[in-house]
């Protein structure tokens, strides 16, 4: 039964490790439906944050572990624009509450910082950002981690609020990796329908657009460019081999359209012509094999930044992502 008051739970083990795709689709569709009780958008936000971090998990004996700090750092940034820039309410109004706790945390933070109008989250002082993330984490651990756990009948992940994070069922992890774009779009649509109701906004498409823009894409990839240039002195385009100029581009090997994340192991240097030609296409099998060989060298470099970037990486993961991206409709580079 999916009617238990899961938000009251402080911990829960994975109840069933061997679950088929139909059961997982059924659970996701249930959460996205109006049959699943939702007073706020937090469940949609938690699903998005898990998907945003799906390539940064750590395999353990319990499952694929994902820390609360990683989950709710993404959660905070995802909500920041929706609330402070687009002013979208996230909760059904009732007699007791007119704003969600996340909205109140953000409003208090802006007031404390003396900020007028919208401001990018990254432009806040480090102490302010850490304080906001800490308060968001406390609120979400209290009210949504257990609730979403129960909605999935304990098959998506296990958790302990006294622990450092959740552990995702390896079967569910593989499912989310395989169907990541499809789950994201369904989540966006269900989230938008909820927002349309609580914001009295008839422009559903406009709300969808705001959701997709809510997480700013990192535009400054200079640190990745420097690392790649330092470790590969030939400084050539990965795709055509020509010498690179200062206009060298940092290219997502598996396109951003599929991964929506920045990881050093998924970057190569490319000339503007090849980067434009590749666009949202996948590398060939041969090209991916070359990236994997490159990554074996790169991950052995004794630098803290590089070791952090390779958290959760392994060659088999990259092959699986490549195959799943093809199943989702992405084409290979010609």
Q: Could you walk me through the main structural features you see in this protein, from its secondary elements to its overall organization?
A:
The protein has 15 helices and 7 strands. With 334 residues, it is of the alpha+beta class. The protein has 2 domains: 6-212, no CATH class; 222-327, no CATH class. Strands 1-4-5-3-2 form a 5-stranded antiparallel beta sheet. The N and C termini lie far apart (50 Å).
Write a short abstract of this structure.
The chain has 334 residues and is of the alpha+beta class. The chain contains 15 helices and seven strands.
Which SSEs are present, and which pair or pack?
Elements: E1 11-12, H1 21-32, H2 42-52, E2 58-59, E3 64-67, H3 68-85, H4 101-113, H5 126-143, H6 145-151, E4 157-160, E5 165-168, H7 170-178, H8 180-199, H9 204-212, H10 222-231, E6 249-252, H11 256-259, E7 267-270, H12 272-278, H13 285-298, H14 304-309, H15 315-327
Antiparallel strand pairs: 1-4, 2-3, 3-5, 4-5, 6-7
Helix pairs in contact: 2-3, 2-8, 3-4, 3-5, 4-5, 8-9
Order of helices and strands: EHHEEHHHHEEHHHHEHEHHHH
Task: Give the count of helical stretches.
Answer: 15
Largest pleated sheet: 5 strands, antiparallel
Query: What is the first-to-last residue Cα distance?
Result: 50 Å
Feature tags:
alpha+beta; globular; 15 helices; 51% helix; two-stranded antiparallel ribbon; 334 residues; five-stranded antiparallel β-sheet
């Amino acid at each position: 039964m999916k009617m238990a008051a899961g938000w009251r739970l402080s911990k829960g083990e994975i109840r069933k490790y061997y679950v088929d795709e139909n059961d997982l689709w059924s659970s996701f569709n249930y959460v996205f439906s109006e049959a699943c009780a939702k007073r706020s958008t937090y469940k949609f936000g938690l699903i998005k944050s898990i998907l945003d971090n799906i390539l940064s998990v750590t395999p353990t004996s319990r499952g694929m572990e994902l820390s609360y700090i990683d989950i709710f750092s993404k959660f905070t940034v995802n909500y920041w624009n929706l609330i402070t820039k687009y002013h979208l309410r996230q909760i059904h109004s009732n007699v007791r509450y007119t704003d969600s706790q996340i909205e109140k945390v953000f409003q208090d933070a802006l007031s404390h910082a003396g900020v007028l109008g919208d401001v990018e989250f990254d432009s806040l002082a480090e102490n302010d950002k850490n304080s906001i993330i800490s308060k968001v984490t406390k609120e979400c651990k209290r009210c949504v981690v257990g609730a979403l756990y129960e909605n999935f009948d304990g098959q998506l992940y296990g958790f302990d609020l006294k622990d450092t994070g959740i552990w995702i069922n390896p079967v569910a992890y593989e499912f989310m990796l395989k169907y990541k774009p499809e789950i994201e779009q369904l989540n966006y649509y269900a989230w938008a329908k909820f927002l349309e109701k609580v914001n009295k906004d008839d422009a559903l498409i406009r709300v969808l657009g705001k959701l997709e823009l809510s997480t700013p894409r990192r535009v400054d990839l200079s640190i990745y460019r420097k690392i790649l240039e330092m470790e590969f002195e030939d400084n050539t385009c990965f795709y055509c081999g020509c010498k690179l100029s200062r206009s060298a581009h940092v290219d997502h090997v598996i396109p951003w359209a599929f991964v929506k994340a920045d990881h050093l192991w998924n970057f190569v240097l490319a000339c503007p012509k090849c980067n434009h030609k590749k666009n949202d296409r996948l590398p060939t099998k041969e090209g991916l094999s070359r990236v994997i060989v490159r990554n074996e060298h790169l991950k052995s470099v004794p630098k803290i930044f590089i070791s952090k970037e390779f958290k959760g990486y392994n060659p088999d993961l990259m092959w699986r992502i490549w195959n799943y991206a093809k199943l989702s409709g992405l084409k290979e580079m010609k």
